[in-house]
Amino acid sequence: MHDAMKSTGRGSAGNAVDTMPQVEERGLGAQDVQERVGRDQTNLVDNPTSHSLAQIIRSNVFTLFNGIIFVAMLMVMITGSWRDSVFGLVIIVNTGIGIITELRAKRTLDRLSILVASHPLVRREGRNIEIDHDDIVLDDLLWIRSGEQVPADAEILRSWGLELDESMLTGESNTVRKQPGDSAYSGSNAVSGLALAKVSAVGQQSYAAKLTAQAKVYTTTVSDLNRGINKILEVLTFLVVPLCALLIWSQVRAVGGWSAAISGGQWRQAVVSAVAGVVGMIPEGLVLLTSLNFAIAAMRLARKNTLVQELEAVETLARVDCLNLDKTGTITDGGIEFKALLPVDGVEAANGDETAETGKAVNALGVHSDAGNVGLAPREVTQALFDLANEENPNATGRAVLDALSAQGYESGQVDVRMPFSSARKWSAIARQGDGIWYFGAPEVLLSAFAQAGEGARISGFAALSAKIAEYANHGNRVLLIAHRAGDIPADFDAEPHLDPHALPVALALCAERVRDDAADTLLWFREQGVRCRVISGDNPATVGAIATQVRLCGDNPVRTMDARELPEDTAELAQILDKVDVLGRVMPEQKKAIVQALHQGDHVVAMTGDGVNDTLAIKEADLGIAMGNAAPATKAVAQVVLVDSKFSHLPDVVARGRQVMANMERVASLFLVKTAYSIIISLGVVLTGILFPYLPRHITYIGALTIGMPAFVLALAPNTRRYIPGFLRRVITFSLPSGIAIGVSVLLSSWFLPGIMQWDMHVKFNQRSLFTINAIIVFALGIVVLAQVARPLLSWRGALVALFAAAGIIGAFIPFVAGFFALQLPSGGSLVATLAALAIALLILATCQLIANLVRRNMLGVRLPRDRRMSRS
């Protein structure tokens, strides 16, 4: 690794290696570096995901569903009846969708890294050299330069005005000035200055790596829909294998026993009949349609710059009832806006009567932000503000001031001596010969120093000014004070930074984070939809609360704020407090995760938005993680949904799409489970009574495609904004079971009694194929009736959809190729009469079963189910 080091004549961010400050420290030698490399004390971070490519393929190929269908397909193909094995194609499609989805998730997680690729500058053997990020070792002397990301945890040894942006780690938007002895954490960014630091933690032990390791735990979203389907498959596991064996045994007995079946080749029909029962039990189309519907929803959201990284997350969107919002990057766009410059007049007066707002009203959200506010201050004060902000590396507030005033035509003025802003002392200053000194900084710091030089009226005026400043701050403004001391420049001005107590306040500069234009409307939509929104931020609770009030987080109700440092550690107590809090400030990353866990205790489905590394753990813990497009790579990697263009207003579209998927999938799942129910009942009846299976596998393939598969695909894409309610499986079963019982009983009655009845009429040609045809017609006709019930209301395109597939099924029987391939035979004469009679009885049975089910359901609940808790008809 030592060989990888290279001397260079340049540094990043415009700092040349050979022009770095001269220091006495020599740094590590080559032998020291080799020793640390041997002890694995390097900055290499390797956190692979738990799923390899082989594991992903195995987990999607070797599933219970695929195993049942594949074995059934092989059994049919062995008999030579390949036309009855077309159902096996669903394995290929469904497996392919699953593998592609998980590979996308794995690729995203493998790219996860909080630290950006860079070539840090270290000092070794008295030389400054650039090395790769992974080549940093413990105890290295590291140069932290403006514009770079800190690659490893370090302790500051020397500082030349280093200021770090730690918002990605802590959530606090203010930059932090670092002094010797302070810690600099990996993942933070240097916004100004320079420092020499000693590396204190590398690789897996660094702060950023620990967050990354927790975030990179491989997890997949388990949807309520998939969970319900899996429960169905688990139940079928105990039914399919024994039922298949029993069906084969019963079919062999029906044709005269094993000897006759083997010698006459009738074992083939026995196997095919058994597979017909098994395949009908498996809702293979539901599994496929679920994956396809999630994928289509993801593609539709992608057109609106919303990336769904886990398809199952689409369903979670429909169930969200708690939305935790990070202020910076979500409600605000992360930028600072210069709002106003207000002159301070008459502070010497005892009553503190400022005329700063003369002719300008202050509304409930703070001062107006139009450019006219700047004109309230004398031009020389505004020019002084421009020059105070015009530092070599201005912070976010300084850049906002410069942008606003530059648009007003202001340019750099004369500055003889400059005292750069320091977050440690909270102020900056400039001095001009003949003009005196101008100060710019935190009002509480400046006023405290100025008050030392006066009493009575002067102090009273300062108190009134402080109250006005507090009022502005409570409205979400970042208030800075400009003060002036006329006279000559003191000789020691630039030697020892100090505040002249005789300076007078002359103006207040009001800045604020830029609030997204769409934030208020988006929050209104969530309120109307019954989703509880909370703002969770690392910033001051009062500031966050003011912004939350500005965007009407709670509508007309007051916003309830709290400092997270007062939160209890007990999760149960925390859950109770959260019910009474709308805004939490000063929240640490671990607390954000704990907040999500506390909400889970109340059975809430939680979504979490964020853009910083400090949000990563909470996003990972939430049921649905939503990252902004400008978020840290780690945050985007662990989120299920990424708003690519960082527009908060996309969230309603995201939630609405999820609701559409789930409401429609609940509708179409009933179609598939009707088939599962009647297949189980028919199989049990066949086994218990020893009759031949009533139809062929190809019959159920034809009927299922026209009454379930294709209509379900269309219905799944229809508009539907009903909020999803837990209990998907229960509602689907209570709808599908009565219909399935009716169809199964109707087919069994037909198979038991029609052969004997038809034998009374010697003029009617009736054989096993005729019985198969009648039974197939019964299943098809009742399937169309169930489809019509699911597709209601029928006075729309839905009615036309039902009529189309009913007509297609009938017309297909008249097409020779279709009729031959699917073994369809139109009844005539006495068979037609028998078919019509059987259909009438079947419809009566269906109506009776559904009526009894409705009566039982109403009696159990005591009251009629609300409309939104029944199957959506919209």
TrEMBL record:
UniProt EC number: 3.6.3.8
Domain P-type ATPase A: 121-215
Signal peptide segment: none
Pfam families (alphabetical): E1-E2_ATPase, Hydrolase
Cell membrane listed as a keyword: no
GO cellular component: plasma membrane
Membrane topology: Multi-pass membrane protein
Keywords: Hydrolase, Membrane, Translocase, Transmembrane, Transmembrane helix
Keyword field contains Transmembrane: yes
Domain of life (superkingdom): Bacteria
Subcellular location(s) of the protein: Cell membrane
Primary localisation category: membrane
Transmembrane segments: 61-80, 86-105, 232-250, 270-296, 668-693, 699-720, 732-754, 766-788, 800-826, 832-856
Enzyme class per UniProt: hydrolase
Protein name in UniProt: Haloacid dehalogenase
Organism of derivation: Bifidobacterium subtile
Lineage: Bacteria, Bacillati, Actinomycetota, Actinomycetes, Bifidobacteriales
